Amino acid sequence: MNKLIIGEFASERFWENQDVAKLPQIPDTNANAIVHAMDELLFPFCKNNDVLVTRYGFNPLLKEYLTKIGVSFTSNTEPIQGNNDDANETIFQLISNHPEKIKKLLPDGNNPPLISHYSIVPGLAEMAANLSISINMPSLETVKKVNSKTYSCELSHSLGIPIMGTVVRDEPSLISSGMNLLKSGSFLIKSPFGVSGNGNFLISSPTMLSRIAKHLKKQSEKGLLIEFVLEPLLDKAQDFSCNFMIQSTGSIDIISIQQMINHGFNYMGSMSANDELLKKLEQSTYYESVKHIGQQLYNDGYFGEVCLDSMILNSGDIIPIVEINARKSFGLINHHLDQFLAKYNQQGKLLVLNINYPKSLLMDDIFNLMEKENLLYYPDNSNGIMLLSSNTLFINKTLGNYDENMIKGRLYTKNIAGNEEESNSLLIHMKSVLEKLSCKIQNR
Length: 444
Hints:
4 domains, Dna Ligase, domain 1, alpha+beta, four-stranded parallel sheet
């Protein structure tokens, strides 16, 4: 059966409880637009006759390149989000408002496609109904519950799994638990639905803790709830994730283990786990913990894809639950890319480059210079860089979200190489190409 692949990467924004107090943060229109544009990264889940629908339309030049290397699918080129549409609506809500924008891409009514979503967010069930497509999924309330960091922390406690965090639900608990943690060093305050550097706050002193407590108390006095997870900064050796599927029958299938590449608290990439990590996990009780976690998720009403973030400490101890993401993930995207490359006996890293670029830059410029310097990946090359995104780079230019000549964007790549040294050389070469195009790389 053909698939209709649609995703909302700003999932946590649509899951968070508006009645819960928020940590200090600076609104970032540029970052929000980039996150909305990440749905183009779902193409690795496509087969030949599948349909990928993206909020801003799929870049024709990127699609032409992907077709050349053997990735074929149908996609919309015109945006789903119109000028008068609210960017705070999910892509499923936008499609429900404008079903005509994708109906022409779908097979006839006698062969409805299977919906493959990145996550379950508001509007998904309504969109399926409007398109006369049946969908079997857990309730939205269940999905919100199991994706909360509060749930992850409390599940660790209930299963007797080694834990990192403590849940606090009032100002006195925040201060007392925070002061206890400060005796051993700095710690993090995490919002229930914070993601990759957002919704987290590093506390390194009693003064800082007091300021945050006062900030949250003011919101509490206005009727908002206090709910946060406090975690010590541990002596971490390795971040990794386990992607698994909970079937609607309750059976659990482990799909892949992915090593995460992080810079501070920010996600910078994924790579399939090496033999050393896999051997360590097999010799531990990690997979047994995964099964227990999956079973409890199912008992609590969830089934579907899960990305379990975990870590290994320098002591060698494994922390099975850092957080639970009941959805697809970048690690799963990378796994599917490696599956595509496996037929050529190749593998690579999924990497992220945060870039400031001039208004004059075009996607053609990047492709042309990469071609000229023999950097662009093709299956008959043993090494090369596969471009994975365009909208994430250019969306702020498209939407006019800039005040100066330099525009913020993000480029996702798959760096295919035979070893670590060659992979590092590819990254250096890619940065050189972008610098020749007057781009400034923000993550060095």
